[in-house]
Amino acid sequence: MLSNQFVISLFLLLCLPIVFFLVAPHVFSPPPRESLIPIADEIDDQILFRRASAGSSSHLSSGTPHPKLKIAFLFLTNSDLHFAPIWDGFFSGHPRSLYNVYVHADPFVNITRPGNGSVFQNAFITSAKRTSRASPTLISATRRLFATALLDDPANAYFAVLSQHCIPLHSFRFVYQSLFESPRVRTWHRSFIELISDEPRLWKRYIARGRYAMLPQVPFDKFRVGSHFFLMTRTHALLTVKDRILWRKFNLPCYRSDECYPEEHYFPTLMNMKDPEGCTGYTLTRVNWTATVKGHPYSYKPTEVSSHLIHHLRLSNHSTSYFFARKFMPTCLTPLLAIADSVIFRD
């Protein structure tokens, strides 16, 4: 009898490591770690965001727009602004009373700033901080741009988030008239942002921080994905810098880096939860995802630049054609400049 009990006890003792190995990952999984964003940066951001929230008005008439309403062009970059000459041509001949330009450049990267005469010369914001791909730092950078533009000019009515690899597909006149004046496009008071709910890897993206990390604030049925490059209304930009609750969730680090692109998740989810009817559900920046490399979209080469390519990239199934496109190799600058006036800015 005692011998049997001893054998059973020994067997159970030997089984304990196996049970622990199988069960522990599910029962004793560690809680999400704290954000890797330095606390000093977070404090600086909150001060800036509170100033923008308190000092900015979100009131814009939904009737006939005032002719002095502006588009704020917000550039996120961690390298040189290779296509600054194209953008200078885009803005050329149009008064600054119709637009503003702001650049968030990673201060830890040596970036050559455009010289005299460029719209980018004095556009670099002083609150810029370190950024890295597929991290919440890109969310913070975009919110800093929003806050800066909100405080800088109450006439900023639309906020166009762009990268250094973006180019315009139309003239400035076309973009401005489409947003504010065209009778064909009556959604100027809505944000042009994707709110994708049927992405094949949506669930894996949702649980990238842990299966229950987003709960209870962000249930799976409210989670959305979309491009990080969009046009947002002033009302929505203000709503974004005021947010504290969702930011705490998307600021958590991921356990699955291959599914973690916070900047592509935070803004669509926030808009979907706060004001989905105020969004078009599509972006005005064309991206080619047919040949992705490690999460990067297809990059156009100099030999591909042509009038045919520009006309093709403009095509859209929505109410207006695409305004911008990415991603272009820096070596595309020369052939793009060669067709700028005759094709790109000729609508």
TrEMBL record:
<dbReference type="Pfam" id="PF02485">
    <property type="entry name" value="Branch"/>
</dbReference>
<keyword id="KW-0808">Transferase</keyword>
<dbReference type="GO" id="GO:0016757">
    <property type="term" value="F:glycosyltransferase activity"/>
</dbReference>
<dbReference type="InterPro" id="IPR044174">
    <property type="entry name" value="BC10-like"/>
</dbReference>
<protein>
    <submittedName>
        <fullName>BnaA06g38890D protein</fullName>
    </submittedName>
</protein>
<keyword id="KW-0732">Signal</keyword>
<feature type="signal peptide">
    <location>
        <begin position="1"/>
        <end position="21"/>
    </location>
</feature>
<keyword id="KW-0472">Membrane</keyword>
<keyword id="KW-0328">Glycosyltransferase</keyword>
<dbReference type="GO" id="GO:0016020">
    <property type="term" value="C:membrane"/>
</dbReference>
<dbReference type="InterPro" id="IPR003406">
    <property type="entry name" value="Glyco_trans_14"/>
</dbReference>
<keyword id="KW-0325">Glycoprotein</keyword>
